[in-house]
Design a protein that fits this description.
single chain, 286 residues, alpha/beta, four-stranded parallel β-sheet, 9 helices, extended
Length: 286
């Protein structure tokens, strides 16, 4: 038949059309070995296990950002070992249940503790054996506690690791573990002094929550260098604060506009949304 092909068309691509990478693929360096003791400190294993026992939670969901997923299985092993080591808390009596006030269950974010909802789950009457589940994916950004994914395993509590925006939760209590990351202080102090030669300048020394444990030591070191108007905020669950989820200088508490007289030195790169917010509220950011 005229115009009809006599053989099947060739569907493969010629070799000359193959794309080749022009630059070598860079693989991240392998993680450095860390001792069990340092690992337990970094992930706050003891505090986390104690809070799980105190809450009488038995089905626990663990949420990790992609950067911390390689440590997830080791965290589970360490947490299971610590939970088995701790004694089971005694069941409260009826009198104790009546006299315990909700405020007695609240703890401070300055101690890197749990979120605002610490009410024991109604599922807490299960047998005294904890089950831990690593969440495979999150429905939101990694900084947000994913209650929906945790409910897929009927979790009593969610343990959130890494950077956190501290958004309020409505379904589950959340234990925040910011992780204690290593930080070299000397280069940071040198950069701070080079950026702010004026020892009387008003400066807020702020860090991502993953480095917040270093702020008190850094502030003390810089005060020893002669800085007289340095403010180191504490982590606090208060998104409406002039410094979101942080305390503010005393003179800013009454007038948020006063914050424009402060410079901000931030340890690590802030999230884009936080950077945009802060840049409109302070004199400068470094």
């Amino acid at each position: 038949m005229p115009g009809f092909p006599s053989s099947a068309p060739v569907l493969s691509t010629p070799d000359t059309h193959i794309f080749e990478a022009q630059t070598a693929v860079r693989h991240p360096p392998p993680p450095q070995a860390i001792s069990d003791e340092d690992f337990a400190t970094k992930y706050e294993i003891s505090r986390t296990a104690s809070e799980v026992k105190a809450g009488k939670w038995h089905t626990i969901a663990l949420q990790f950002p992609d950067s911390l997923l390689p440590d997830a299985s080791r965290v589970v092993e360490a947490l299971q070992a610590e939970l088995q080591r701790l004694p089971q808390p005694p069941l409260p009596t009826e009198d104790a249940a009546e006299t315990t006030s909700p405020s007695a269950l609240e703890t401070s974010f300055n101690d890197l503790s749990t979120s605002s909802d610490t009410t024991p789950s109604p599922r807490s009457s299960r047998p005294n054996k904890e089950k831990l589940y690593i969440l495979a994916d999150t429905s939101y950004g990694s900084c947000c506690a994913d209650e929906i994914a945790a409910e897929h395993v009927s979790a009593d509590v969610l343990i959130h690791y890494g950077r956190a925006c501290l958004s309020p939760t409505s379904r589950l209590p959340v234990i925040y573990v910011f992780t204690m990351q290593l930080l070299a202080h000397e280069p940071l102090v040198a950069s701070f002094k080079a950026t702010y030669p004026d020892l009387a300048a008003k400066i807020v020394l702020m860090a991502d929550v993953m480095f917040s444990s270093h702020v008190p030591a850094l502030a003390a070191r810089l005060a020893g260098e002669g800085y007289t108007a340095l403010f180191a905020p504490d982590v606090r669950h208060d998104p409406a604060s002039a410094l979101p989820n942080r305390t503010v200088p005393p003179d800013v508490a009454g007038d948020a506009g006063t914050l424009r007289g402060y410079h901000l030195f931030h340890v690590s790169d802030p999230a884009p949304a936080l950077l945009l917010t802060l840049s409109s509220r302070v004199a400068s950011i470094h």
